[in-house]
Amino acid sequence: MIISASYRTDIPAFYSDWFFARLRAGYCRVKNPYSGRSLRIDLRREKVTSLVFWTRNFGPCLPRLNELLAFGRPFVVQFTVTNYPRSLEAAVIDPHKAVEQIRRLSAEVHPKCPVWRYDPIVCTDVTSLEFHRRNFAELAASLEGSVDEVAVSFATIYQKSERNLDAAAERHGFEWSDPDPSIKAALLEELAATAGAHGMSLTICTQPQFLSSQVNEARCVDARRLGAIAGINLDVPLKGNRPGCACHESRDIGAYDTCPHGCAYCYAVRHRAIALARYKVHDPHDDALIPLEPDQPAILPLFEG
User: For residue 103, which of 32, 117, 146, 161 is within the disulfide window of CB 3.0 to 4.6 Å?
Assistant: First the structure.
């Protein structure tokens, strides 16, 4: 079983103590956001194939790299670095620090450990198409030699994303837009050429309509990459978590509405105030990331993988 930690929240940045405590305990509890069931996830070493982290700040985990490596399972860090203005990203770390962390992961863990994510691409009058061309090129240059892939996607404007973008736009005085697909496709070709010039392939996450000879399909939970790190073949079925997703099967151990980064376009947080409130009540010694609601069904007696 591949453990995803987590596309629902930033566990390395905010919940690393909890994560390492759960590895030592050998399990955690997670609420299924669709069924409402509370699941007990087996984190024993013999049951975990590998790990995929999703983060904007791996810093809290870096002092514990030896502990993570001693767990004996390969891991990939899907590392988002976008360098957007604070009006869009309220509390992410400085991009230079993020680049330093990626370089360290590449050097100290494995060259295939970090994957750069320039994701999502958000179009506003402060992040114009020209901004993205220039910004992407600068970041790609700074990451050359430390990553071989950059995963991108255009912001999917869910109802909560639209509401939060509108609120940020009113608060900070900018306008946002969702460009025509032809404009997006043209930008991707330019970004792919830039990525290639810096030794990276550009992949598109969960938006297969933009695939081309230069833009490949992203597999963010990628058993092939994890197997290359481990030096073995990992036999894991393909099972995406939403339409268009090409990932291998995994189990996510995060929770929605818990990431305090405050990114205006985030699909995983309804309101930053909710995430901050949940973060404040988080107990790193609990077996669940956040307290499970009292009316949840009883915990299943067996591990669910």
Answer: 146
Q: Give the CA angle between residues 17, 39, 160 to the nearest 5°.
A: 75
Task: Please state, in angstroms and rounded to a whole number, the distance separating the CA atoms of residues 123 and 145.
Answer: 28
Cβ atoms 246, 221 nearer than 8 A: no
Do 113 and 229 touch, CB atoms closer than 8 A? yes
Using an 8 Å Cβ cutoff, are 264 and 87 in contact? yes
Q: Are 272 and 263 in contact (CB under 8 A)?
A: no
Model confidence, pTM = 0.94
Half-sphere exposure of 286 (CA within 13 A, CB side): 12
Percent residues over pLDDT 70 in the chain: 96
Which residues does 67 contact at the CB level (< 8 Å), separation at least 6? 20
How far apart CA 283 and CA 303 sit, in angstroms, is 22
Distance CA 178, CA 186 (A): 14
Distance of CA 184 to the CA centre of its chain: 22
Is the domain spanning 2-281 CATH 3.20.20? The answer is yes
* Domain boundaries of the chain, sorted by first residue: 2-281
